[in-house]
Amino acid sequence: MTVHRLLVVEDDPSWQRRLEDVAHSEGCDVTLVSDGEEALKRLSGDSQPRPHLVVLDLLLPRMDGWEVYGRMRVDQQLRTIPVLMLSSTTAQDPKLGGIVGFLHKTPSPEPVIHQFRERLRGFTEPAVEPPSVGTYAVRLTEDTSILLHSLPPSLRHAVRLHMYRAAELLRTGLPMMSTWLMALPGDPPSLLVTVEGVRMVLEIDEAACTLTATSLIIPTYLPRM
């Protein structure tokens, strides 16, 4: 499949221009937005066709890329749109539904721009996903959100990635036990996610299909921003 319509969600004007120039040279119709809230408005609006691909930066004002991804995953229409993530962090690539790749920003943009061009040329539409019945929305309380944003970007990215992994595992009904994920007894039921010493408790609301981070414990030896 060829990418004819592309939505680029990026707040850095220089990266916007470089990505737009490459996409135009590959024959794409490009829409640029600078934050997550505007991206969701564009995606949810009926005034224009939805894009074939979303290029989504993770570090955005107002609403970050992870939140945009999470909102897309629980929307029946938006969850079918492939996402190519973009970030300056060097953490592992996400293995999550809807994500077709990950571009790591570098001080010199040329390698990233080359990868982006190759991905556009070789883009293959992912298999159609089943309806989003049982898909869990991921939520953060205000306190856990503040604590999470005090972590270095790479560690923050890793914690958010594992939160969404937990949500996808919960949807499949697989056993909640691994080196990083553990089911906790209680009412309501909850999960414990552990990433590089950071521990997060996620409360499960099965009726509402939500997974809410209610507690975040950060070891004292970890750096804060």
Automatic annotation (TrEMBL):
Entry keyword set: Phosphoprotein
Residues of the signal peptide: none
Phylogenetic lineage: Bacteria, Pseudomonadati, Myxococcota, Myxococcia, Myxococcales
A Pfam family assignment: Response_reg
Species per Swiss-Prot/TrEMBL record: Stigmatella ashevillensis
InterPro entries xrefs: Bact_response_regulator, CheY-like_superfamily, Sig_transdc_resp-reg_receiver
Residues found modified as 4-aspartylphosphate: D57
Keyword Phosphoprotein: yes
Domain Response regulatory residue range list: 5-120
Name of this protein: Response regulator
